């Protein structure tokens, strides 16, 4: 067979190849938000993956993402969690993971395709492919973007959840409003006036005959949750307070997935990119409550979702039941498709690098 014919056969084979079933490593620092993003993409790709959680300390923690891996971790040697056989694909996210994905590049060479989720803050050669959300300013020939972050709420999973709702959720009258509460962070301050504004808006929704599914997070302060509870006191509702459940050591399964799937309308506080993106996977109207604060980066994110048609700002007085619609956002699927496309190109000539 001539060289040109051989190259054509390789190209055709690469176009038809997928990553489904291939061995993979996911490297994170174990934060739930980091794990969820990587798992969402890995599941969409159909990878056979292992979680590799890292916890460098001392200088190596301080120096990440720019430093190296501590010698005591014995990277690449027998007994280490990072020992051959090397994976066919590796995915990493978070600054603490970056030294490990770079070390894998040196150790495994072209045997492994490397993907980084979120800006690694290091050079383009850190990985073969880098994903960042659209509101992040990083761009390049090996950078892909989506409007929202990846998560585990695929359209298939949401459909399965809707088909098997618990009786207490199914019994709630329509419209069912899911309220997802975040809380104070370095960008949003949540003043007492903000708490009062949210109380007023939710109370106006209650007056329209809605039922409610309410869930809070670790950052939700008492005044914010109390205001929502007071506004919905006379309505059919379900409430999940994770902090209270943990304090009581109550083994109650978090109903957030079912709350998301069952919602006719969602209200989400603006402080969490992940929660807002997950709400936009539903295809249902999403109201975003904006507390005091904000940043250029958060503003770009919320402007993008508003322009897409998924969200609207929560008014102080809701006067009618929301009824807009949009194509659900499934960023994990979109990222997986882009990873597959770039990986196929890389397979044709992995030695070319970046």
Molecular structure report:
- The structure is a single chain.
- The protein is α/β, with parallel strands linked by helices and 354 residues long.
- It folds into two domains: 3-152 and 333-352, Rossmann fold; 155-313, Glycogen Phosphorylase B (Rossmann fold), CATH 3.40.50.
- It has 13 helices and twelve strands.
- The strands form two sheets. The chain has a six-stranded parallel sheet, sandwiched between helices.
- Strand 8 (211-215), helix 8 and strand 9 form a beta-alpha-beta unit.
- Helix 1 (3-16) packs antiparallel against helix 13 (331-348) and helix 2 (32-45) crosses helix 13.
- The two termini are 30 Å apart.
Query: What is the N-to-C order of secondary-structure elements (H for helix, E for strand)?
Result: HEHEHEHEEEHHEHEHEHHEHEHEH
Poorly predicted segments: 3-13
Q: Mind telling me the CATH class of the largest domain?
A: Alpha Beta
Secondary structure category? alpha/beta
Give the fraction of residues assigned to helices: 25-40%
Annotation, overall tally of beta strands: 12
What's the helix count?
A: 13
Radius of gyration: 23 Å
What sort of overall outline do the alpha carbons produce when their principal axes are compared?
elongated
Widest sheet: strand ordering? 2-1-3-4-5-6
Our measurement of the CA-to-CA distance between the termini, rounded to an integer number of angstroms, reads 30 Å
- Proportion of strand residues: 15-25%
In the CATH scheme, what's the topology name of the largest domain?
Rossmann fold
Mean pLDDT: 92
The major β-sheet equals: 6 strands, parallel
Domain count: 2
CATH architecture label name of the largest domain: 3-Layer(aba) Sandwich
